[in-house]
Specification:
With 148 residues, the protein is an alpha/beta fold. The chain contains 6 helices and 6 strands, in the order αβαβαβαβββαα. Strands 2-1-3-6 form a 4-stranded parallel sheet, with helices on both faces. It has a two-stranded antiparallel ribbon with strand order 4-5.
Length: 148
């Protein structure tokens, strides 16, 4: 029989908002290596990981976000150019307006943003300063999330 806290850990998920490019574009840091570091840290803390590098459907994306404890967006200039990546973040922040019903849908997870290069998009960073976390701060953040 598993201890209750172990069962809780296994049911927790983290949604990773990542952006893969189909062509070889120059990125500020090795984006895939950074993404894998984030995923490894999440798994080390006992979280399941929902990856989002391939678009499925908004319904599936929203379900995965709502069933996650946290959304971690790994943001660079290519991520900010994607409307569906920004939609993921807005949904997690509770700022999504359903285009059909015009109803604001409130997100559930705690959103956090990892920005490899803080100078990439200063206007984006200025709007989301309270959500930005550095990679070296992530292990402590995940431990705290696990204790909630």
């Amino acid at each position: 029989m598993k201890h209750e806290s172990q069962m809780k850990l296994q049911s927790d998920s983290i949604y990773i908002s990542e952006f893969e490019t189909k062509v070889d574009l120059e990125r500020e840091v090795p984006y895939e290596a950074l993404t894998m570091s984030v995923i490894d840290l999440c798994r080390t803390e006992g979280f399941n990981v929902h990856r989002s590098k391939n678009f499925t459907s908004y319904e599936e994306i929203e379900t995965k976000i709502l069933t996650s404890r946290c959304l971690i967006a790994i943001v660079d200039k290519y991520w900010t150019s994607s409307t569906w990546k920004q939609q993921e973040l807005l949904y997690a922040m509770g700022q999504f307006v359903d285009p059909v019903s015009n109803v604001i849908t409130h997100g559930k997870p705690t959103p956090r943003i990892i920005v490899p290069n803080l100078d990439v998009d200063k206007s984006f960073n200025a709007r989301h300063t309270d959500l930005i976390i550095r990679l070296e701060e992530l292990p402590n953040f995940l431990k705290q999330l696990n204790e909630q």
